[in-house]
Fold:
Amino acid sequence: MATSQAPTRQAITLKGSCSLVTEFFKYAANTILFQRGVYPSDDFHMVKKYGQTVLVTQDLALENYLDRILKQVNKWLLTGAVTQLVLVIISKDSRTSLERWVFDINVVEPPSDSTEPSSQKPESEIQAEIRSILKQIVSTVTFLPIIDDPTVFNILAYTKDSADVPADEWVDTDPLAIEASKSQQVKLRSFSTDVHRIEAMVAYRYEG
Amino acid sequence: MASNPKTPSRFRSRSDAKTPLTPSLISSFNAISLSPRKHPADLSNPFLARSRPASPVKRATTGAAFPSSSGVTHGGVIRKGGVESRLDVVSHDYHPPKVNQNARPELKRSRSTPSTRERTLSHSSSHGDRFITTREDDVAPASLSSTATANLAPTATSSPGHTARLANATGVPLNRRVLAYHEPPPASSNAAFLTTQRNLARPLYSRADLPSSNGTWKDKSRKVPTTPERVLDAPGMVDDFYLNLVSWSALNAVGVALGESTYLWSADSGVVSHLGDAPQGTYVASVDFSNDGAYLGIGLGTGAIELWDAGTGQRLRTMQPSDDAGGQCASLAWYAHVLTSGHSSGTIHHHDVRVPRHLVATLEGHAGEVCGLRWSSGGEVLASGGNDNVVNLWDGRGGDVGATTRGAPKWTKRNHTAAVKALAFAPWAPLLASGGGTSDTCIHVWNITTGARLHTYQTGAQVTGVHWARDRKELVSTHGFPGNALAGWAYPPPSGSSGSRTGAGAVAGSSSNAKIFEIRDAHDARVLFSALSPNGEVLVTGAGDENLKFWRIWEAKEAKKKSKAKQETSVGRGILSIR
Structure:
C-alpha cells in the first residue's frame, strides 16, 4: 500500500514532478548518446527502468558530468526557471551542429480556484508516456542521417531571464542552431506530470 | 661545350623546384592569407560601433564581467535595468560603466574607449542615427536592453535588426538565456576503438568501398606493404627531376645510372654489373631498355645516345647528335628498332638503331625540355611531356619519312600547369595518364583516340611518375614534395565524387575516395625515378637520397603464395649495394 501511495504523491507535488522530469532527462540523454553513437556502445549497460531496459552509460566521467548538469536542471525546475533543454550533437571536427534534441518544458498552471487537485494522473500513465518517448528516440535511428564523423554533444538550457545561474558553472552560449534551410524537424511524443509538460522534438541537418 | 651552359641551367631549375623555394612560397602565402583576415576584422569593429549594434556588444562585455567579478548582485542590477526600464534605454546605457568605474579604477582604463564610444552611441541613438531605420529603433531597444539578447546574438552578427529578425524567425523569445555547462563533455575513454567499431557497424549501403557498376574495386582492406621489399644503395644518383635514370627490362634487369656510370642489377640473381661509363665531362641523363630487354639506350648530357648490349655489356654504337640537336637527352623511349629521344631544346628524335643514318624523324612540339617520353605498347602512339607543361601525343606510324620530316602532334594538351614528366599508357585500355609537377599536382587521364580528358586526380604533391597496373584497374603515382610518397589510385575514380561522368573534364573531386593506398615518405628525398617490373608486381623507385627501393604494390592474384615464399628469401638478403 505504501509503495503504491508514494508514486502518486510524487507525481502531484512540485518536487516529485521535478525529480521525475530530471530522471527522464537522464535516461533520454543516455538513450540519445547511445543511439546516435556519440559514445561507443560498450560504454553503456542495460538498466531496467520504466518497465523496459534502458541503456545507461557506465563511463564514470560522463555519468558525473550528466549528474552535475541535471542537478542544476533540477534546481531550475523547482523555480520554474528553465524552459527548454537541448542536447546538441556536434561534429567534432567541423563543429557544426548535426542534431538538436529539444525538450520543451512547460509548467502546467494549476487552476487557482479549485482547492483539490482535479486531475491526478496515475504514475503508471506517466511512465507509459515516458516509455513511449524513449522508444521513439530509439526508433528515430531509422530516419536520422547516418553520422560518419566523430561527434561530441552539448547540453544547453534555455532559462528565463531571471534564472539564478551559478556563474562559474554555467555560461551564456550560442544556441548552436542548425540553419533553417538545412534543417528538418520531427516532433516526438510528449509526457506530462501534474506540474510539468515535456514536449520532445528532434531537428537534424539534412541537405539534399 | 654545348652542355656546359645547359648543366648550370639544369641545376638552377632543379634548385628552384626543390625545397628552398617552398618555405618561402608558403610563408608568402601565409602573409597573403593573414593580412586580409586582419583587415576585415579591423574594419568591421568600427563599422559595428558606428552603426549602433555596438551597444549590445558592449552590454555583452559588461554582462559577462559582472558574474565573474562579484556575482549575482551586480547581475541583478543589469537585469533589473533590462526588464523594468525598457523604454529608457539611454539612461541604462550609462549606468553600468559608471558602477564599474567607481568600483575598480583599473577597469576604467581598459574600458575607456568603449565607454566613450558608447556615450557617443547613446547620443546618436537618442538623436536618431542615419544608419538605423526607425523600425529597428522601435523594436530593438526594448529587447536589446536585456543581457540575454546580447548573449544570445553571436557577436559577429549582432546587428539589432538581425537579432530581432532572428528571434522572430526562430520563435525564441528574447528574454531568454541560452546556457551551457562550462566544461565540455568528457571524451570517451576508448576513442580509437570507436572509430573501428563504427566502421564495422556501419550499414552496408553507407560504405564507400563497394564495387561500383563501372568496375572499380576500392578494397581498403587490401594490404599494401608500406616498407620496401628491398633497398639498394645508389650512391651518386643525381637529384634532378628532369632525368630518367631507372629502367627495368623485360629480361628482369634493372638499369640504373649513377652520375656518369651505368649499372645493371639482375633481379633474378641479385648480381650487379657495371655496364660502362659516360665519356669524360658528361653524365648519363636517361636510360631505357629496348622492348625485348636486350639493348640499353643511354642518353648523355651532350645529347649523344649510346647503345649497349645488356647481355654482353658491350657498347654497340654511339649516335652522335646532329647539328641541330639541342642539349642533353633527358628521356628515351623504345619501340622495336626505333629509339626515341627527347632533348632539352624540346625536340624529339626518332633513331633507327639498325641503320647508319640513324636519325629518321624529328618532332617539334615542345618549347621546353622533354622530360617524359613513352611509347604505347603496340607502337601506335608516342606520348611526350615537357617542361613547357604540354602533353603531346604523336602518331607512331613513321612511314617513309626522311630526316627532315617535321611531324605534328596528333593532339596537344595544355591542362597541366607544371612540367609533365609522368606518362603512362594503360595496358588494358586506350588511356594515357599524365602527371604534372609541383605547381600542378594533377594526374589527368586521357583517351588516346579522342584526346578527351576522362578523369583527374588531385594528388596534392608533385607527380614524378605514374604507372598503370597490369591486371588491376589501378594506377600508382610517385611523388616529390610534399610527402615523397607513393600513392595508388582506383580507376575510374569512384562515382559520387563526380569523377565518372562521361562529359569532358570531369574532375574526381578531392580524389580522397579514389586513393587506395599511400606510402608516405617512401624516400627521404623526392621520389624521382620509377619503373615497373616486367611482371607488373614490383615498383622500383630511385630518389635523391641515393637509395633504390623495391615496393611490391600489386601482387598477382594467382601467384600470391609463390611470391610470399620469394619475399621471405629476398628479405634474408637484406640491403645490397650495387656499387
Summary: Residues 14-35 of chain A form the longest helix (22 residues). The first strand of chain A starts at residue 44 and ends at 49.
